[in-house]
Write a structure and sequence with these properties.
Blueprint lengths: L1 E2 L2 E9 L3 H11 L2 E3 L10 E2 L3 H24 L14 E3 L1 H8 L2 H35 L17 E9 L4 H11 L7 E7 L3 E9 L3 H10 L12 H28 L4 H21 L3 E2 L3 E9 L3 H11 L2 E6 L11 E2 L8 H7 L10 H16 L2 H17 L5 H24 L6 H10 L17 H29 L3 H22 L3 H7 L6 H21 L7 H12 L2 H10 L1 H25 L3 H39 L21 E3 L4
Parallel strand pairs: 5-13
Antiparallel strand pairs: 1-12, 2-10, 2-11, 3-10, 4-9, 6-8, 7-8, 9-10
Helix pairs in contact: 2-4, 2-8, 4-7, 4-8, 5-6, 11-13, 11-21, 11-22, 12-13, 14-21, 15-16, 15-20, 15-21, 16-18, 18-19, 21-22
């Protein structure tokens, strides 16, 4: 387990070499730029944020164009295409492709313009269609809907609520305007929701009729300068134009689908340029020189100095970070441990005063995950699936590759515990032998014991695993104390807790009640006496040292008593490991339920029953595997983060974020 040592590096070079040096550093991905120099009369920073924003905007436009292409001309891809990773290209090929970046941006602009036309047309079509629908009830009306009459007469065109006949509508209006004697009401159409009509009266009665209609909730129709039939024809013609716009621009976008690869390269290229200009804004520069300050992994210092000194005229100086400085953290572990680095990083990276817990995490992570899933059939599926992905997808990203390896080891552990507990797709071996071959005597016997038949034995084993896990965490804390030259801290915060908790556990195991509950033999009485004495010594030690930072003895004892109260958290932590039993039982019981369902359907139904059994088997066990693998992943993380890390690990380190190729589709290799 190792946190890689870091160095501070200062590079002073000629401005004419700035482009070459920055591009080289970016491709190596070995330095995290960290400028601390203050601007003065000689060295100052140049504001390149606008240029960087322009490049980032171009990259974003490329991504948007690729999304549009994906919508209009989807690529054919397999289920595992997401694991393909980046395409590796040489430095010469990269330089050659740069020439096509500007052409790609023209295609991007065209794609986005065509997509905007499609988007605008799609937005307008529903509005036009709603207008056509609104005109349907008025098609029998010959006048424009906004026609309001002549010099001598007034026309009110609109709707009244409800399904009304001509007589009903006329009666309602006359009731509200009895003094109007020249009223002419005409119904155009009627429906349960509304009645479309127009009312004609003389100009002298305009106000009375308007007031009468308002009282009846009269509503005006959609405005139109032509009659409804002509308006509908115009709208339908517009719909045809909009659909033609959609078809035409969709075809134009599909024609540009062949440029997808060029657009992807342009996206990466402009992203690289944008990142480079972001860095340029941080560098102190004079008229002819510039300075790069950065953190670098110590192992790369010599090779980087040698290569850059041969290629450029520069000064390359390194030094250790200051004692009060918190350098960024990068981890390096072997192939067994490195897959769980992401688990540690998800919690928090270690500070310079802590060690990398990845090795301890890996051992228990695979162990606990396997115990929770604990089915050999599921484990074999996980091993085969992850192995195929690792073998077939050579360009898989580093992060995804580590995840695949983590689940590979988890699958191996799951297979091991499945055979230990005699679970292979639940009791599939016995069910298949009994249902289809009449051999109930055939079954997969557990190498150790069946946890479904001996749950209390399994619970005791889970508690034992939990105690070991927690004690290893406490031991890691002691190791950290010795590493930081604090042996008394190891005694006060670790040894005393070992004595208290370990002694209490051993004492409880001498009691008949506890031994009977866990189905184990009691320990000798003498062991209990020694354990009780050790526990008391540990308790006294914690009380007198738990508040040692206080100079007042009364406060120190009170804080010590509060620290000793923390023994209750140990009880809850140990009980948390009962989830190992719970998830293991859940996996096995659900698997058996699906097997039983399949056997009930298949029994006595011949070939059809075999088919139904296979369908139920595949669907049921797929669901069980997915659900319980997710549960095992979540609860394993919880046991590591809460119970295990709670005993020794604080974290808080800042991840090493080198200036590198933050590309999405291509990677340019230039090894030293």
């Amino acid at each position: 387990m190792s946190v890689l040592p870091m160095k501070r590096v200062l590079i002073c070079a000629l401005k004419k070499d700035r482009k070459g040096i920055l591009e080289f550093l970016q491709r190596q991905g070995a330095c995290e730029i960290h400028s601390t120099l203050v601007d003065d009369d000689v060295f100052m920073r140049q504001d390149k944020t606008q240029a960087a924003a322009t490049y980032h905007r171009s990259a974003d436009q490329c991504e948007q164009a690729l999304i549009v292409l994906g919508e209009h001309a989807p690529e054919k891809s397999g289920l595992l295409s997401a694991l393909d990773g980046k395409t590796a290209i040489s430095d010469d090929e990269f330089e050659e492709r740069i020439k096509s970046a500007n052409d790609a941006m023209q295609d991007v602009s065209s794609i986005l313009a065509y997509d905007k036309k499609c988007t605008d047309a799609k937005a307008e079509i529903p509005r036009i269609e709603s207008q056509v629908v609104a005109l349907e009830p008025w098609l029998g009306y010959d006048l424009p809907l906004d026609f309001d009459g002549t010099k001598a007469s007034v026309v009110f065109t609109g709707t009244l609520p409800g399904d009304l006949t001509l007589d009903q509508a006329e009666a309602m209006i006359k009731e509200q305007a009895p003094e109007v004697d020249d009223l002419d009401v005409n119904v155009i159409s009627s429906a349960p929701e509304q009645t479309c009509l127009y009312v004609i009266c003389g100009r002298k009665h305009e106000d009375e009729v308007r007031d009468a209609l308002r009282k009846l909730n009269f509503a005006k129709p959609p405005a139109s300068s032509t009659n409804p039939a002509e308006a509908k024809t115009g709208l339908e013609e517009r719909l045809g134009e909009l659909n033609n716009i959609l078809t035409t621009n969709d075809a134009k976008i599909k024609e540009l689908a062949s440029e997808r690869e060029k657009i992807r390269f342009a996206s990466d290229y402009y992203r690289l340029r944008g990142d480079k200009y972001d860095v340029l804004s941080q560098l102190a520069q004079s008229r002819v020189t510039f300075i790069v300050e950065a953190y670098i992994e110590e192992r790369y210092c010599d090779s980087l100095r040698k290569y850059m000194s041969e290629k450029f005229d520069l000064i390359f100086e390194t030094e250790d970070p200051a004692p009060d400085e918190e350098p960024p953290v990068a981890l390096e572990n072997n192939g067994f441990v490195s897959p769980v680095e992401s688990v540690v990083e998800s919690y928090s990276l270690p500070t310079k005063h802590e060690f990398d817990p990845s090795t301890l995490v890996s051992i228990f992570y695979y162990f606990l995950f396997g115990m929770m899933l604990s089915d050999a059939g599921y484990g074999i599926i996980i091993v085969i699936a992850t192995s195929l992905c690792l073998l077939k997808k050579k360009n898989m990203g580093d992060g995804m590759k580590k995840t695949m390896k983590m689940f590979l080891y988890c699958g191996i552990s799951t297979t091991f515990w499945g055979f230990m507990f005699g679970s292979f797709f639940g009791d599939a071996v016995n069910v298949i032998a009994t249902t289809f071959f009449g051999r109930p005597d055939i079954k997969l016997s557990p190498i150790w014991f069946d946890q479904l038949d001996a749950p209390m034995k399994m619970l005791g084993f889970c508690f034992l695993v939990g105690i070991i896990h927690l004690f290893v965490g406490l031991g890691a804390k002691a190791y950290g104390c010795f590493k930081n030259h604090d042996p008394l801290g190891a005694l006060y915060d670790c040894i005393f807790w070992y004595m208290l908790v370990g002694g209490a556990i051993l004492y409880l195991l001498t009691l008949d009640m506890m031994a009977s509950m866990l189905n184990i033999n009691t320990l000798p009485v003498g062991v209990g006496k020694v354990a009780a004495v050790a526990a008391i010594i540990g308790l006294v030690g914690i009380i007198f040292t738990g508040g040692r930072e206080s100079h007042n003895w009364f406060k120190r004892i009170l804080k010590g008593l509060y620290a000793a109260y923390g023994v209750t958290s140990w009880l809850s932590d140990i009980l948390s490991y009962s989830r190992l039993l719970a998830l293991g039982l859940a996996t096995g019981v659900i698997a058996q339920v699906f097997n039983k369902m399949g056997s009930m359907v298949a029994e006595g139904t011949g070939f059809i029953g075999v088919i139904l059994f296979i369908i139920i088997f595949i669907i049921g066990h797929t669901l069980n595997l997915l659900i319980n693998a997710l549960g095992a992943y979540v609860h394993t993380n919880r046991l590591e983060y809460v119970e295990f890390f709670g005993k020794f690990y604080d974290g808080g380190g800042k991840a090493f974020e080198p200036f590198k190729q933050n590309t999405k589709y291509f990677t340019i290799k230039e090894e030293l």
